[in-house]
Design a protein that fits this description.
This protein is of the alpha+beta class. It has three helices and ten strands, in the order H-H-E-E-E-E-E-E-E-E-E-E-H. It is flat.
Length: 185
């Protein structure tokens, strides 16, 4: 995408939603970086006993020094999904995402069985997904539950992600969040 500096600055000055989405797209293309949470969030492993089980959580973070309100505590709603089961749980068996849609900030919903949704929920997609998804009820942006990737809808990118940093016999620990969450929160 080639964008002239003057055009980009004019869009930013206008304060439009499109400019904000464009900024998010450009930052996403620059490479994803993760930052530690103010403290790790711990979820009981029993709540995620089998594949495609999801559990919401609240994570505590601090806005970036470059944010509009720098170095402020924030709370970020997230969900952790067990995407695979195995005899010994490991971080790669879990996906954790921010529940705020990157389009206009509505809270997305976890849908374990996409076939239970009305077909118009997936009108933009070539077919109804066969695996669980997150759907934004505001504008039908749809995201893969396995990694938060955008499947369709007006969202400019996939869901913001958390890193699962540890798994024990009893808990799953979420210790980092995608940096952009701390900038745009």
């Amino acid at each position: 995408m080639v964008l002239r500096r003057r055009s980009f600055l004019a869009q930013i000055a206008a304060g439009s939603v499109a400019a904000l989405n464009l900024t998010r797209q450009l930052l996403a293309q620059a490479g994803t970086q993760f930052r530690p949470l103010a403290r790790p969030t711990v979820v009981p492993l029993d709540d995620l006993s089998s594949a495609w089980r999801a559990r919401p959580f609240i994570a505590d973070g601090t806005t970036l020094p470059s944010a509009a309100t720098p170095n402020q505590p924030i709370r970020v709603s997230g969900a952790i999904v067990r995407i695979a089961a195995g005899p010994t749980p490991s971080p790669d068996q879990f996906n954790a995402v921010c529940l705020r849609c990157p389009h206009e900030g509505c809270d997305v919903e976890f849908v374990r069985d996409p076939k239970s949704q009305p077909p118009e929920a997936f009108a933009e997609l070539p077919s109804i997904p066969t695996e669980p998804v997150f759907i934004c009820p505001c504008h039908n942006s749809t995201f893969k539950a396995s990694d938060g990737a955008r499947l369709g809808g007006p969202a400019p990118r996939g869901l913001y992600r958390f890193h699962v940093t540890a798994v024990t016999e009893k808990t799953v620990e979420v210790g980092e969040v995608e940096e952009d969450v701390l900038l745009f929160a």
